[in-house]
Amino acid sequence: MLSPMKHAGPARDNNNPDEPFVPDLSEGAETGVYLALLELIDEGLIITGDERIIDANSAACRLLERDYRQIAGRPLTELFVDEQAFLEARARVLIQGEMRGTLQIALPDGSPRTFRFVAAARLRPGIHALILSPEHPTDTPAGPSDTAPVAQADSVWPRLAAALAQAVIVIDERNRISAANAAALDTLGMTRSELIGHNADHCLDIHWPAPGAPPVARISPRSNPQALDARVLAGPRDGWHLLLLPPPRMNLTGGTASADPRPPRGLQHPRIESTRLDLHFQPLVNVRSGAIHAGEALLRWHHPRLGLIPFRDFAGAARDDGRLPELGGWALRAACRAANSWPLTQGRAPTVTVNIAIEQIMHGALVQQVITALSESGIAPKRLELDLDEAVLAVPDDNISATLSSLASLGVRLAIDDFGHGLNSMPRLRRYPIQALKLAPELVSGVGKDDDSNALVEAIVCMAAPLGLKVLARGVENEAQQSFLLALGCGLQQGPLFGAPMADVEFARFLSGQLFC
């Protein structure tokens, strides 16, 4: 049932016969759940919004007799013989929530073909999954009362869990643990018999996030009081949940990286002091003109024993201590001060981009932090771009909306960083005043080598254009990627090919004599 996956990179060695395919998805957990694993199932799988198709796997392309580019990004109505058939199917599956039945789909020549389906409507608001398989010609035609079972598809989500290297737990609508992969069992220190099939409350302590809070639960086994954070995603149908446990990360006490439950707060790492923080900057280039578009501020910590370490390696520690809003505010002020010293060319200076965590948006008085940073530094608001965590698109929160609207009214630019990790994202971009998308490095790494990566980048560029969004690529490593991205319509690029992150003084020297856009 499992087939090699094109998005997620090479598989790791695995001696567990129950999980024969365990790809390395330590980067980008949601990519593994919602995107990279589309190719792991033989059924035709379509991820769609209310009106437009977001993605499809190779099996769906074969069943529908279409090329990937004729499906992804196209209006959902194009799959049906006419608009009335589309409206009826949408009402049954996306509105009424019919989970099993048959649908008549139009082949490219216009002729109808009947497919069995299993639907997971509303994976998240406005995001749905359809699993298609051929209907025998003698079977009953499609109709609202048709509930033909597709038993094979019922095991899709447990199979996806088993294939992930990211530790994942699937909990069904009865609060029963439907699936947990080997990585989750290792992380929790539990066996399959202790976990799978049991009521979650009988074997785990789970503190679910409050309404409007970031989608993070606190979880620990009943037999072990030490807890860890888990990202909460909607499951395949109403009432189901996926818990993504944290991947291995640096142990800031100086030991080896581990995904084991964390030691008590205060014993794991020294306090992160602002006097030990620093910023490095990496250029973002318009490859058509060679001009510098922006410098991205990257936070660094001078650890007393480990030396200079990047933000990704101490973000978890900062989050544990509740200090992300504070550290983010420091980075924002320091980045704006540095940008004020950058040289001008023909009256122009590069934009400065600063990464903003969702905690900083929801709990960090971000608008006032931005006003203060702009006032202290003297730079114009249009020179500041805030790169937002893609999680803001998954949290329908009035405070987030008000905050981002206030920032946009100041003239600050807003972008979604590491775009491509969540299939919920594209339909929700209209919710906030976003102006740009930055493709995730994991997605960029496949460009020029993998047809699916090429097609996905092109689909994102095509869908972003009508929304007035610029698409930028992060993690560009070689000229082949640069050329492919440019051919796909992505001319703003950043990565090792254009320069490694530099200390602020070095970056200012790098900008001397450059053209800016």
Automatic annotation (TrEMBL):
<dbReference type="InterPro" id="IPR035919">
    <property type="entry name" value="EAL_sf"/>
</dbReference>
<dbReference type="Pfam" id="PF13426">
    <property type="entry name" value="PAS_9"/>
</dbReference>
<dbReference type="InterPro" id="IPR000014">
    <property type="entry name" value="PAS"/>
</dbReference>
<dbReference type="InterPro" id="IPR001633">
    <property type="entry name" value="EAL_dom"/>
</dbReference>
<dbReference type="InterPro" id="IPR013767">
    <property type="entry name" value="PAS_fold"/>
</dbReference>
<feature type="region of interest" description="Disordered">
    <location>
        <begin position="1"/>
        <end position="21"/>
    </location>
</feature>
<dbReference type="Pfam" id="PF00563">
    <property type="entry name" value="EAL"/>
</dbReference>
<protein>
    <recommendedName>
        <fullName>Diguanylate cyclase</fullName>
    </recommendedName>
</protein>
<dbReference type="InterPro" id="IPR035965">
    <property type="entry name" value="PAS-like_dom_sf"/>
</dbReference>
<dbReference type="InterPro" id="IPR052155">
    <property type="entry name" value="Biofilm_reg_signaling"/>
</dbReference>
<feature type="domain" description="PAS">
    <location>
        <begin position="153"/>
        <end position="199"/>
    </location>
</feature>
<dbReference type="GO" id="GO:0006355">
    <property type="term" value="P:regulation of DNA-templated transcription"/>
</dbReference>
<dbReference type="Pfam" id="PF00989">
    <property type="entry name" value="PAS"/>
</dbReference>
<feature type="domain" description="EAL">
    <location>
        <begin position="260"/>
        <end position="515"/>
    </location>
</feature>
